[in-house]
Amino acid sequence: MNPFYSLLCLIFLLPVGVYSQNLIANPGFETGSDNAFNNWTKLNGADYLTVTTVEAEVHSGDRALHVSSPGFPGEQWRVQLISDPVPTTVGNNYTFTIWAKAAADGANIRFSTQPNALYGPDTPITVDEWTQLSWTFTANETMTQIALDLGQTNVTFFLDDAEMVAPDNPCVDEFDVPEDQQPIAAGKGKFLGSIYSPAQRQDHEHYFNQVTPENAGKWGSVEREEGVYDFSEIDEARAYAASNGFPFRYHVLLWGNQQPTWLRPMTNEEKVTKIRAWFQAVADHYDGSSDARATLEYLEVVNEFINDPPNGIDNSPYADNSNDANSGDYVDALKSLNGELGTTPGEYDWIVNAYKLAREYFPCEETKLVINEYNVLTNYQGVTDKYLEVVDLLMADDLIDVLGFQGHSFSTRKYGGESFAEHTAFLRGNVDRLAATGLPLQVTELDIDGNVDDTYTVTDNVAVRDSFQKAEYERIFGMLWNHPAVTGITLWGYRTGHWRSAQLAYLIDPCTDRERPALAEYLNDSIRNAEAPPLNDFAYACATTGLADRTAPLTTPLTLFPNPASGRVTVQLGMVLPDAEWLLHDQLGREVARRSFAAGQRSVEVDLDRLGLRPGIYYLTVRSGARQSGQRLLVR
């Protein structure tokens, strides 16, 4: 997910009513002894944060905050002041303001929140004139702290009179899903999933049948402190997926964002050691010993390798990671493995090495390796061309199993003057390019804004924006869902607290406590009640567990009927075979049932309901001696 779009909304406000009193305690820094400020905590760089009582340096009252940092470009957090927690309503917008004045040119401030971090831009501070700076964000926690990141430059500046107001009548999502609501994609042969996070986990199992953690699996989330791995948050998502039988995609091992800040200063050799330790820690943790530690079905190895690689440089026209401590800056470290791993040097050799390492730690019989990127649907800035170039390199060594691509609103909307039908065909053309590889596709992160009309102009007309969001779901989701190469779609949230809440991309309206039409009328009605969409047969880079030890086919035909099946399926052989048995595996190769044919028997009836199988794709195999044959079975 592109962090730029996830950090802030500076313009659009939700219709949440009138705002009231200031939530920030001690907003003018008036109380506190010496250089301390009541209700504020100096997290970093305390020596650079002092009190001033000089009249020209105070906006109002008697005291203000004096900031004098030596300058930490790209590491603003090295000088940081954070407010006491204040109550916030998830999904509603809050505007934080503060008055600022700089002593010279070049000063700036970055606003952010804790604990579930949101970030604003580097906001410049006017010289010798008090200016009120403003930042609007969408709350994603019930208690929020405002963090002032103040260490970017070595220019002295002054802050005073902070304010954050709450809506008098906030919209609160209290929608109760009917108990009999079942996952929309049940029996469709494809999954429809959503992210799993504190804001998105409520009633997830009623609508969705696939799970991706939003932030909990990122390296910077799991190993904040070097050598200390905390999987507790992602384990909750993993246990939930395993207990419900939902496929789980781990997001993500390597990325140019949300990586450990302690990693960047290390040598390449040290970084390689840490990368290997990180891969090993994830592999060891998900060892199958419990639902919370179930082996991983899908694993995103590298995310946004074009738009936001961990390279620590200015990657124009894509990300500039030159001053981003969270980028990890380990592309060169991965390149240093070329000799050891036998990789041909090149622009993307570091990606090939990342996947070679992943194959070492995650057996392909158990875990399918995924790649993820955005703007692939549009080929913006040549992303699709580069993406396929990388895929070719990975396929040459059987290192990739699934092609993942994002479908966020900002990349699927129609920007040009073509018709909506023409734009849909254009998007479909790029999906076709990916499908031509022969690999299965997954839409890893999908959302569609719900605050605009059919010209993408922001509107307050609820009926208009609901209607257009539904129309865009029908156009974009429909094209993707019905593409035979697409095996599943993951929504990047559906309730308030959605990362694009400011754009109303959620599907439950918190102000009416109802499903919006895109969910109620399209996904939960049209898609649910439609026939299963077309789906190709796929062969992974290596055989899945339980299907890899015999290659010679049976000497007699194998027939399954009916197929698709619901309730029961008959397995029939053309002739009786000695010591024959049938086995049923899910699409990741995990054995879910095994029975022997009775002596002289060439036909058996399998009770699918008694096996407790969920709808989806399975593989039924019959073995006899050193031979086996199998067929794909769709259970509805």
UniProtKB/TrEMBL annotation:
The protein in question is named endo-1,4-beta-xylanase
UniProt xrefs under Pfam families: CBM_4_9, Glyco_hydro_10
Q: Which InterPro entries would you find in this protein's record?
A: CenC_carb-bd (IPR003305), Galactose-bd-like_sf (IPR008979), GH (IPR017853), GH10 (IPR044846), GH10_AS (IPR031158), GH10_dom (IPR001000), Secre_tail (IPR026444)
What keywords sit in the KW lines?
Carbohydrate metabolism, Glycosidase, Hydrolase, Polysaccharide degradation, Repeat, Signal, Xylan degradation
- Is Repeat among the key words of this record? yes
* PROSITE patterns assigned to the protein according to its UniProt record, in alphabetical order: GH10_1, GH10_2
Q: Does the keyword Transmembrane helix apply?
A: no
Q: Which Gene3D superfamilies match?
A: Galactose-binding domain-like, Glycosidases
Output the superkingdom of the source species: Bacteria
- Give the residues annotated as active site: 445
Q: Which family does it belong to?
A: Belongs to the glycosyl hydrolase 10 (cellulase F) family.
Q: Which residues form the GH10 domain?
A: 186-525
Q: What is its EC number?
A: 3.2.1.8
GO function term, MF aspect, one: endo-1,4-beta-xylanase activity
Question: What SMART domains does UniProt report for this protein, alphabetically?
Answer: Glyco_10 (SM00633)
The scientific name of the source species is: Neolewinella litorea
Q: Which reaction does it catalyse?
A: Endohydrolysis of (1->4)-beta-D-xylosidic linkages in xylans
- Gene Ontology biological-process annotations: xylan catabolic process
